[in-house]
Amino acid sequence: MPTSEKALDVRVAIEGSEPEIWRSLRLPLNAPLNTLHEAIQRAFGWENRHLHLFHPEGVFGEARPIAGNEESAREMDMDSAEGMTVAQLLSGEGSTLVYEYDLGDTWLHAITVTGHAIVPAGQISCLGGENRGPLEDAGGIWGYQEKLRILADPSDPEHEEIADWVQYVSGVLHPSMFDPTEFDLDAVNKSLDRMRIVLADEPPTPEERAAVLRPVRWLLDRAREDGLELTKDGYVKPAVVREAVLALELGYPWDTYASPREVNVPPIALLREHIQYWKLLRKYKGRLQPSPAARRTYDDDAALWDCLADRMADQENLALRVGLEVLVRWLLGDQHIPRSQHGHAMMSELFHAGLRPSRGGMLTEEDGEDIYNELRRQLNSLGLFEGDLLLGGRELTPAGLKFLLALRRRFEAAR
Fold first, then answer.
1. How far apart are CA 170 and CA 177, in angstroms?
2. 173 - beta bridge partners?
3. What is the pLDDT of residue 348?
4. 3-class SS at 401?
5. Whole-number pLDDT of residue 57
6. How many Å apart are CA 95 and CA 108, to the nearest integer?
7. How far is 207 from 274, CA to CA, in rounded Å?
8. DSSP symbol at 85
9. pTM of the model
10. Phi/psi of residue 135, each to 5°?
């Protein structure tokens, strides 16, 4: 397999933006056309919620648009981008293409080839850019710029309404913290590198498996010989909780507790609960004992990796199973749903999947938030995210991405 390949430098600018919102991207010449779509989504901070098209000769050119996937191509009687490469539409310096995202808001991205390069195989990077990407569902470029004007004018009668909307959609703590000129090149390139890992879909290394499994493996090993004696109320004893805090490096404030009760150290309590939920530990005669399934994974991280992936993908609760597939899709796509929207976004996904509450009636945002939070707590019990173990984080590690890819394969196989 070649270690390097030919690449294009392309300048991508949102038409009509003032000041201009643009990015300079470098990607392999023979990359799939939809890899360009994914790169643009990440570079501009889009959430990949809507359909997209490619216009080979511009929006008003004679060439028919190309739909993003087979389904939308059939519905709109177009060719599909699936199976096409970047080189089929872009090659020589100065060649152009228009990428359209959200057929309602009509975000047009003018793409121009600015140069050529040689890159490590599969590498996609952002070389520069200015201004943050627009907010989803802002009404197109004119709607977005009008909202920015109102946001900057406290005397405008619509200021409070628009400020609330911007805060809700962007996830900033206060509307005044929203900065349309913000652009973080390093963050974009980290996202593009995560995209490379997802596209490559390579098996985990032994070190990556160990990093993901570390919390679970620690507790299983600690219970390995004779199990763990529990308190009369059924909790792990303080001495073992203290060991776990230090071994898993949970840090402040838990490492200051000389004899911490499990209920006062939520990450350890949740870890124990989730390992029981995955049927790797069980309570028996006042002790926490490894299950037969756990014993089969002793000293075999590949077996434990597969066991956890199987059990997480096959959640007993249907809403959790469907919700986890949704959450995995969001995380693999770097779709960071603002906290204020977790409940609504998950509720909408569950509703469209045909789920309804057993109590009757309709799903609520509270239902969606409960499902989202439980699933994040499960994921946080593994070593998937950057930052402190068991506390969760925003960005997935390469090992974490590979575990979610293992979950995705199981979801696809079950369809």
1. 10
2. none
3. 96
4. helix
5. 82
6. 16
7. 23
8. B
9. 0.93
10. -85, 145
